[in-house]
């Protein structure tokens, strides 16, 4: 395993549609609002969902930094997520690429480059979160090898429970421990933390930033993922500090 420190985490979607991207960004926003500097790297190349949360030009994206521009500093691809009045920083490196470059970003050599980029981010940021797709591709293997913690994200369904068991087996084959399981849209018995289901439309503000109970749930996720204890705020602060998200 690469030496990336104790504050790097691969948030692995145990199955597609688990809400991993949204949870990764919400967790990053909560930590940044608490005064921490957080980097989010987008290893979910197929969906490229992190870019949906960002505005402005994305150039270079993460796949470029893993292929054509491996000598370019990671800072060149970071896009700051706007957080009003936050004392910390949330910087994202999304994947936005044509199919040809996506294919090259999934090679074993690119996976090794991803490990190096995670290490690079860990030198500057308090926390590094990697939005990681199901463990069926080289970039997923690179992410879990480099991160000091591996967390499975799964929906609170029978499909999600089965996916946790299947993914745990795959990670065992890689000699990677599962440090925590987080379920979305409800609870499973295997979960160390759970984010409740919401009736909000997909384009509505995230529930962890509009409802105290959900903010507390994301704080619990921070605790099990990074042993962090971010404040959820007693007044406007957290709940008024982030713009609209979309669910992915």
Protein model, in words:
The chain has 248 residues and is of the alpha/beta class. The chain has a single domain, classed as P-loop containing nucleotide triphosphate hydrolases (Rossmann fold), CATH 3.40.50.300. Helix content is 33%, strand content 16%. The chain has 7 helices and 8 strands. It has an 8-stranded mixed sheet, with helices on both faces. Helix 6 links the parallel strand 6 and strand 7. Helix 1 crosses helix 7 and helix 4 packs parallel to helix 5. The longest helix has 16 residues. The chain is globular. 52% of the residues are buried.
Describe the SSE topology:
Elements: E1 8-13, H1 20-33, E2 37-42, H2 62-66, E3 79-80, E4 89-93, H3 99-105, H4 108-122, E5 127-132, H5 138-146, E6 149-155, H6 158-173, E7 180-184, E8 193-195, H7 212-226
Parallel strand pairs: 1-5, 1-6, 2-4, 2-5, 6-7, 7-8
Antiparallel strand pairs: 3-4
Helix pairs in contact: 1-7, 4-5
What labels describe this entry?
single chain, 8 strands, alpha/beta, 7 helices, disordered C terminus, 248 residues, 8-stranded mixed beta sheet, Rossmann fold
Give the number of DSSP strands. 8
Number of helices: 7
Distance between the termini: 29 Å
SSE order, as H and E?
EHEHEEHHEHEHEEH
Mean pLDDT: 86
Helix content: 25-40%
- CATH architecture label: 3-Layer(aba) Sandwich
What kind of sheet is the major sheet?
8 strands, mixed
Question: CATH topology, anyone?
Answer: Rossmann fold
CATH class: Alpha Beta
Radius of gyration: 16 Å
- Please state roughly what percent of the residues sit in beta strands, choosing from under 5%, 5-15%, 15-25%, 25-35%, 35-45% or over 45%: 15-25%
CATH superfamily: P-loop containing nucleotide triphosphate hydrolases
- In terms of quaternary structure, the protein is single chain
Quickly count the domains. Answer: 1
Structural class: alpha/beta
Which blocks of ≥5 consecutive residues have pLDDT under 50? 1-5, 201-206, 234-248
What overall geometry do the principal axes of the alpha carbons give? globular
């Amino acid at each position: 395993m690469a030496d990336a420190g104790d504050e790097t985490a691969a948030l692995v979607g145990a199955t597609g549609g688990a809400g991993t991207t949204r949870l990764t960004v919400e967790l990053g926003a909560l930590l940044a609002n608490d005064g921490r500097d957080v980097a989010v790297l987008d290893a979910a190349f197929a969906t490229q969902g992190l870019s949906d949360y960002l505005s402005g030009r994305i150039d270079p994206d993460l796949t470029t930094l893993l292929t054509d521009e491996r000598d370019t500093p990671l800072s060149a691809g970071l896009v700051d997520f706007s957080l009003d009045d936050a004392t910390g920083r949330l910087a994202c490196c999304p994947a936005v690429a044509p199919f040809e470059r996506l294919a090259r970003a999934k090679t074993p050599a690119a996976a090794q480059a991803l490990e190096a980029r995670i290490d690079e981010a860990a030198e500057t940021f308090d926390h590094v979160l990697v939005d990681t797709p199901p463990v069926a591709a080289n970039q997923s293997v690179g992410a879990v090898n480099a991160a000091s913690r591996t967390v499975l994200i799964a929906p609170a369904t029978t499909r999600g429970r089965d996916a946790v068991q299947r993914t745990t087996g795959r990670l065992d084959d890689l000699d990677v421990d599962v440090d925590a399981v987080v379920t979305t849209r409800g609870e499973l018995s295997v979960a160390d933390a759970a984010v409740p289901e919401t009736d909000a439309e997909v384009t509505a503000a995230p529930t962890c930033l509009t409802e105290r109970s959900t903010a507390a749930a994301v704080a619990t996720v921070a605790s099990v993922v990074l042993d962090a204890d971010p404040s959820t705020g007693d007044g406007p602060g957290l709940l008024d500090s982030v713009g609209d998200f979309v669910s992915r």
